Amino acid sequence: MSVGRVGKQHKPLPNVVVIGGGTGLSVILRGLKQAPVHITAIVTVADDGGSSGRLREEMDMLPPGDIRNVLTALANTEPLMEKVMQYRFTNGTGLAGHNLGNLLLAAMNEITGDFVTAIKKLSDVLAVRGVVLPATKQSVSLKAEMADGTVISGESKIPLAGKQIKRVLIEPADVVPLTEAIQAIQQADVILIGPGSLYTSILPNLLVRGLFAEIKRAAAPKFYICNVMTQPGETDGFTAANHVEVLYQHVGGPFLDTVLVNSAEIPSHIREKYAEKGAFPVECDMERLAQLGLNIVAKPFMTFEGGYLRHDAGAVSREIVSVMRRSRKKE
User: Fold this and answer.
1) Tens of pLDDT, residues 29-41
2) What CDD domains does the annotation carry (predicted)?
3) Nearest to 196, CA basis, from 19, 35, 315, 49
4) Are 192 and 163 in contact (CB under 8 A)?
């Protein structure tokens, strides 16, 4: 495991470990790869929908979708290559619905006989800046116990149930974390969790017991990047503190140091657009976050791109780098 690339002063770059999955993680990584840091992304492997789900079932491999998104976000290649990686076929018997990047990972997995090696080889091809790792090499299924006592099986089905989630769990519960992921956490100068779907992208990583034990043990400061909007079927009505409380409930207690929350006002026409789909701004309940013992960084961390609200990756990255510099000066 690389400790960090050497800069002009022959000092190792600070190691940033980012944990999560989905679109939110990819957005943050696009900003971080421009910063003077060494990145390790630890990615969930609980996805069971779409192209990933089909490949997982038909080829007995880990789902490649979240990994593909992260590789693409960290790649230093021409824009056309990103379009190739993200291209989804619309025609063809057995091919329609598949994503080309997923198929490349599946092919590399077949060639090398190992999913982690497949990621490393494709990382070389894409000139990926950093290291991308699955949380575990074992096949993981996600289940949710709902407030009414029903149990929903499958990551892709949980948000569609239209019920309040009581808790999620992974099966098998005793999966072993990837050794390289453990080493990355041990060497981290800062650990970032999120943004992303709380129950289906973030918690599947933290529920890998050995992985979370290492996160909790790590001396590195731990940041939670809270979502800008609630997610229908997962976090309806949630405040920022509710997100943190759910994390703590699942892992048995506090472990975070700092929470990053968006303070920018969302224009009414954008709010209305999201409200039509059942999504609303996440309230930054400062008092409750303070009661949880967290350092609170509330700044305009939001941008609007391509018709969607996103985290401002540049603003988040600058904040993280600033915190690391202040921390190093104290040492």
Assistant:
1) 999 999 999 999 9
2) YvcK_like
3) 19
4) no
Half-sphere exposure in the Cβ direction for 153 (13 Å, CA):
4
Burial of 11 (0-12, 13-18, 19+ CB in 10 A): exposed
CA-based torsion, 149, 152, 153, 159: positive or negative: negative
Cα torsion at 71, 83, 47, 22 (round to 10°)? 70
Q: What are 138-183's pLDDT values in tens digits?
A: 999 999 999 999 999 999 999 999 999 999 999 999 999 999 999 9
Q: What is the pLDDT of residues 176-206, one digit of tens each?
A: 999 999 999 999 999 999 999 999 999 999 9
Residue where the block lists tokens 């063809």: 92
3-state helix, strand, coil in the chain (%, to 5): 40, 20, 35
How many other CB atoms are there within 10 angstroms of residue 263's CB atom?
13
- CATH class, domain 15-44+135-330, is alpha beta
Measured between alpha carbons, how far is 282 from 132 in angstroms, rounded to an integer? 29
User: What residue ranges do the domains of the chain occupy?
Assistant: 15-44+135-330, 49-129
Tell me the three state secondary structure of residue 269: helix
Question: DSSP of 91-131, one letter per residue?
Answer: SSTTTTT-BHHHHHHHHHHHHHS-HHHHHHHHHHHTTBSSE
DSSP state of 140: -
CA–CA dist 224, 261 (Å, integer):
9
Pairwise CA distance, residues 241 & 294, whole Å? 10
Helix ranges (H only) for the chain are 22-32, 50-59, 65-74, 79-86, 100-112, 115-125, 179-186, 203-206, 209-217, 240-251, 268-275, 286-291, 313-330
